[in-house]
């Protein structure tokens, strides 16, 4: 993995003793439902681990899960986040949420994509805006 602390890469961020402004509850269960960019059904579930989130460059917080993860991006006013199911490397499932995370809210509308990592990366490379299906990420 390039840029990791294990490789000795001096450009890698050292662990910080900071906390996210909008923390997501550990061990919460997230369900992704809806349609992907090809109108195929998406149905996934991940459970976040008890581990604290890891800070990555640019205000990005990584929350690890049993078969997926959440990336939460702190922006000037609020957040944006992504809920990923990576249990099947041939069909990753992601719901991109373009609204702020709120601990009192349990359901979020977003843009749904699925496919291999190369397919998802290709959609980002071609488009300035991500277009996909309509998804919902629900926390329980």
Describe the structure in brief.
By secondary structure, this protein is mainly beta. The protein is 7% helix and 43% strand.
Question: Can you describe what's shown?
Answer:
- The chain has one helix and nine strands.
- The chain is mainly β.
- It has a nine-stranded antiparallel beta sheet.
- The longest helix has 10 residues, at 117-126.
- Mean pLDDT is 85; it is low at 1-15.
Q: What is the count of DSSP helices, taking H or I runs of 4+ residues?
A: 1
Q: What spatial order of strands do you see in the largest sheet?
A: 2-1-9-8-7-6-5-4-3
Helical/strand content category:
mainly beta
H-E string = EEEEEEEEHE
Element layout with pairings:
Elements (H helix, E strand, L loop, with lengths): L28 E7 L5 E7 L6 E3 L3 E5 L3 E8 L2 E8 L6 E6 L9 E9 L1 H10 L6 E7 L1
Antiparallel strand pairs: 1-2, 1-9, 3-4, 4-5, 5-6, 6-7, 7-8, 8-9
């Amino acid at each position: 993995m390039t840029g990791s602390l294990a490789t000795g890469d001096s450009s890698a961020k050292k662990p910080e003793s900071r906390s996210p402004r909008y923390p997501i509850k550990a061990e919460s269960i997230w369900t992704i439902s809806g349609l992907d960019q090809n109108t195929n059904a998406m149905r996934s579930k991940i459970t976040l681990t008890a581990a604290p989130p890891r800070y990555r460059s640019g205000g990005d917080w990584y929350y690890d899960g049993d078969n997926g993860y959440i990336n939460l991006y702190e922006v000037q006013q609020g957040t944006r986040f992504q809920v990923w199911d990576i249990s099947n490397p041939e069909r990753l499932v992601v719901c991109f949420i373009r609204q702020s995370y709120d601990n009192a809210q349990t359901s979020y509308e977003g843009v749904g994509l699925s496919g291999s990592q190369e397919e998802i990366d290709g959609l980002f490379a071609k488009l300035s805006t991500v277009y996909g299906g309509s998804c919902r990420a629900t926390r329980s």
